[in-house]
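quick one, 223 residues, struct below
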Amino acid sequence: MANKAMSKSESPVETVVAALVAGIREGHLSPGQRLVEGELASRLGVARTTIREALQRLEVNGLVTQERHRGFLVRQLSQARLQDMYEVREALEALAAQLAAPKIKVRPDALVAVMARLNEATATKDLKAFTEANHDFHSLIRHISGNEIAEDMLERLDLSVYHLQFRLLIERPQVFSTNEDHQRIADALFAGDGNLAARESAKHVRHSLGELLKLPATMFGQG
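---
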């Protein structure tokens, strides 16, 4: 995990949070790994109190957990909890798509552009580009929906399972098959059909969950 230089607009705690999130996203910090405050403070050049506050924030967001006698660890989700989270995500993604449909059809340029990126990444089997375009596709729909609470909750859910999604993209090129889902969602949005967009978004979430559950059992925690 690289040391992240602090920008003028960030507090030391925000800088540490960003560095830890990046470490998890990039695979430098793995599920179940213990996060030692002293080591992190030395590596990132901040006080241990700053590290502790950052870890507490990540605990609230569900990205790390705290265990007695072990301290903070990168959270390792159980399959049951993952399924619970995806039930919530399915409902929220469907809502966002339904709300976004009448707004996107008025000015579809951004959706056209992100679909072009997804199609190009799929054609060239570029996993990194696909991951970025996939994130932007869903973020666009959530933002255009205008429901800030749904948008915020979905961003938190993304963060909580990001380490699983990252591993999935690295180890399972089959993820490109989900682009067919994107196209069906986009077609419904272009048509301004909110109900169809909601149904296709819900199906896409179930498809994604199915792919995640194909990951090795060793990647999941107990309970």
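The beta strands are 34-35, 64-67, 71-74.
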